[in-house]
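We treat protein structure as text, and this decision shapes the records that our systems exchange. This encoding replaces a full spatial description with a residue-level series of whole-number codes. Below, we set out a record of this kind in full and without editing:
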Amino acid sequence: MESRTGIYGEYGDFLPLVERDLRKTIEQYSREEQRTGGSKIIEHLSSRVKSEESMRDKCIRKGLPATPESSLRMIHDAVGVRIICGFIEDIYANVRHIRSIPGWTVVEEKDYITNVKPNGYRSYHMIIRMREPFPDPEGNLPGIYYAEIQLRTIAMDSWASLEHQMKYKKNITNPGMITAELKRCADELAGCDLSMQTIRSLIRVNDDGRGEKR
């Protein structure tokens, strides 16, 4: 039975604080990387706490009871962050930073950039476990909370947004044609991302004629 205080129970009050800490940590290492390396590895950062309605629907789809234990232990994306990068190599730079953060443990990784989904979807997904100064459904203090991190280039994110619209739009005519066009577009964008990466690498090598990075 769902808690009378909602699917997250009393722990719902802590989720925005977990989201805040997650963003703060990522923004801190991003600023330090720019200070020491001279270039941004994050173009844009967005985050959210999954709505109770969306979490309830997900529990139902998975055959789980609508409880804090299900939503915060069995499912790991109550808190989510999306990191948008300018270049593919920046995605992997972020991944390395995330893996090294004290108090964070990466419990799952899916590289859909190297292993592209059949429909053309490309992104890097991580599930992390964090210790936070709030109680959790198991009575721990500090508590253990999970978050999903998605990392994409600008091109990947634009494509994913369009594909999401198509997936949830009702009564679309010619879905097969649209799916094929999306796949073709995904392949073209992948080639563009690789070309942009190559161009940036060439610019860096030729900076001042000395191969210095800026």
Observations:
- The first helix runs from residue 15 to 37.
